[in-house]
UniProtKB/TrEMBL annotation:
Pfam families: DUF3511. This is Ribosomal protein S14.
Length: 86
């Protein structure tokens, strides 16, 4: 290979950082906000709404599957009647 060289990802690994060398800055809060008592309630209400939406989606899916099964059963029964003359 004339002057062409392929490089692999293993030749030059990414630099590693030692956690002891990294200094984290402490955040200074100047103003404290009062905690909202509704946070837990809102969170619970949001979870409830998501759960109910999931239940509605599953219910609609079951209705569609049931309808398709009934339709296929009716088609099979009708075709069977035509072929066998019952």
């Amino acid at each position: 290979m004339n002057g062409m060289r392929s490089y692999s990802a293993y030749e030059n690994p990414a630099p590693r950082f030692d956690l002891k060398e990294i200094k984290f800055k402490k955040s200074k809060t100047t103003k404290t906000e009062p905690k909202s008592w509704n946070f837990g309630v809102d969170s619970l209400e949001l979870r409830r709404q998501k759960r109910l939406a999931f239940y509605r989606a599953v219910s609609a899916e079951r209705k569609i599957k049931g309808s398709v099964k009934k339709s296929l059963k009716w088609i099979k029964h009708t075709c069977s009647k035509l072929l066998h003359g019952n």
